[in-house]
Amino acid sequence: MGLLDSFEKGLERAVNSAFAKTFRSGLQPVEIASALRSELDKKAAIVTRDRVLVPNSLTVRVSPADGERMAALGPALTNELDEAVRAHAAKQGYSFPGPVSISLRPDEQVATGTIAVDSVTAEGRVEWRAVVEIAGRRHPLSRARTVIGRGSDADITVADPGTSRKHVEVLWDGERAMVRDLGSTNGSKLDGVPVGQAALSNGQVITIGRTDIVFRLVPLAAPPQRVSRHDAATELYDFRGGDR
Length: 244
Description:
The chain is an alpha+beta fold. The chain has five helices and 19 strands. InterPro entries: Cell_Proc_Reg/RNA_Proc, FHA_dom, FhaA_N, FhaA_N_sf, SMAD_FHA_dom_sf.
């Protein structure tokens, strides 16, 4: 089963079944992924025999009604879209000139069920920001030490009686990260395995009490150094009756 085939299943894992019902009608998340994939195919430019360049900055404009439903998914949607775009690029042998950036924006000029994609080929350097996701909400980490626990004096407070006031700390120096248990009563786990101290990799899950904390590295692009003049264009995708 391909990534796009399992796209909606991935989203369902990120939300509860009650919310998933809102996607039974109207614009579907998988249609956004399909539009982004088509955008890469249409804008692919052969640079050399071994390099095909595609836009790396993509803005998806949808109707306010569709945008409201999509926004309720939070980071789960953009994470899935990012994975879908990268997987398609890898499969097709495409190259990105810089960090990949995908954003969704409501636009009153876009009709319901229609997707407008703006794409730009922009160069830039990658700067990484470390965040932790707790109950669907992202918390940026400081450049030193971030304490997580149920106490009001913790940097990030979790409402979980199974956690200590200062349960774990996450250390981040801008390039590397580490998790350390602070002598908690119930201990901590990393990807389901008890942990006292360990290096952190993107996507690993720290568990304290009944709370899962997902560590993520988010690429931040510097201001574009160059924009290809033919790439700053808009493609309109209407899933009520094909592209138009």
